[in-house]
Design brief:
The chain has 71 residues and is mainly α. The chain has two helices and no strands. Helix content is 54%, strand content 0%. The protein is elongated.
Length: 71
């Protein structure tokens, strides 16, 4: 004989910490929150000088190419 599910703990319910509104946070919400924090941290890092130099050289090469293609 099977036991009836206990209130709040039956099949299909999540257990664990609850959010402000009392709802159990979804796993993808936690992942999204952690990714946002990671990306925010990366955005605050300075751009490496080597990358800036490379971008400037690419811009100069594109400009030379455009100037050479114009009549």
């Amino acid at each position: 004989m099977t036991q009836p599910p206990k209130p709040g703990g039956g099949a299909g319910t999540a257990t664990g910490p609850r959010g402000r509104n009392g709802a159990v946070p979804e796993p993808h919400d936690e992942i999204a929150s952690k990714l946002r924090a990671l990306y925010a941290e990366i955005e605050r890092e300075p751009i490496p000088a080597e990358l800036i130099d490379l971008l400037e050289r690419l811009d100069a090469a594109e400009e030379r190419e455009r100037d050479g293609d114009q009549p």
